[in-house]
Amino acid sequence: MEQGNAKVLVVEDDDGNRLLVRRVLEEVGYIVIEATDGPTALGALVTHAPDVVVLDLGLPGLDGLSVLSEIRRASVVPVLLLTARSGEHERVEGLDAGADDYMVKPYSVNELSARVRALLRRSQPEPPVQHIHVGEVELDLAANAATVDGKQVDLTPKEFGLLRFLAVQAPETFSREALLHHVWGSTSDWQDPATVTEHIRRVRTKLAAAGASTDVIVTVRGFGYRIAQT
Fold it and tell me: How far apart are CA 199 and CA 197, in angstroms?
């Protein structure tokens, strides 16, 4: 998300503090929505769908923690708490209620902007991985294809699925029974775990024939298999 497109809901009943926060955030390009109390904030959560909420704890009527609890019932939007209380109990209470971060008043406006930016960055999903490299082997996850130094490897769908699963889950080790479950959707009650052993042998043989100089799939004696660490 571009910073200029990000919407920040500022929930603060003090006019001076709210105006200050608004100016700081608008100067760096955020769209700011204001609310002076809990009910207005909860309404803005629905109508504006903000990307971050800056929430003062000391609200009149419905206090900040109650507002936070209601926000968490409906949304996973990142919430930065503002509090005049410096005690550990209040901070822990806010974090336990679902806040992602907090600042104690008085605070630096530059730090406030930086913390909002950090919350936005953390809330954005990582772009999906399209290619995984293990030594000379490259997996194209979108095309379900494997190459060794650019040379196509003729893997069956199940062989590629096995290699893909281990590569995506690296460096975790999986038993044959676990691989039956994750890759075949089966169990040892219905399918011989030797099926996994044979498919791993075939993958290793095909990769070696294509020029891979080391085993991409490592046998962890007594545990199972994992992808080689590079």
Answer: 6
Q: What is the CATH number of the domain that holds 79?
A: 3.40.50.2300
Q: Which helix (H) or strand (E) holds 15?
A: helix 15-27
- For residues 140 and 200, state if they share a domain: yes
Q: How far is CA 136 from CA 146, 210, 215, in A?
A: 10, 10, 10
Which carries the bigger pLDDT value, residue 197 or residue 89? 197
Q: Could you give the 3-state DSSP secondary structure of residue 11?
A: strand
Quick one: 142 and 76 in the same domain?
no
Joined tokens for residue 6: 């990000």
Which structural domain range is residue 82 located in? 3-123
Residue 21 host element (H or E): helix 15-27
Cα separations in angstroms, 68 against 71, 118, 147: 5, 19, 50
> Reduced to 3 states, what is the DSSP secondary structure of residue 28?
coil
Q: Do 92 and 181 fall into the same domain?
A: no
| Distance separating alpha carbons of residues 221 and 192, to the nearest angstrom | 19
Taking only the tens place, the pLDDT of each residue in 108-140 is: 888 899 889 989 988 776 566 789 998 899 999
pLDDT band, residue 213 (cuts 50/70/90):
confident
For β-strands 101-104 and 79-83, DSSP reports them as parallel
Q: Within this chain, do residues 100 and 137 fall inside the same structural domain, yes or no? A: no
Q: Both 88 and 153 in a single domain?
A: no
Segment 53-90, tens digit of pLDDT: 999 988 988 889 999 999 998 888 999 999 887 666 77
Which pTM value belongs to this model? 0.56
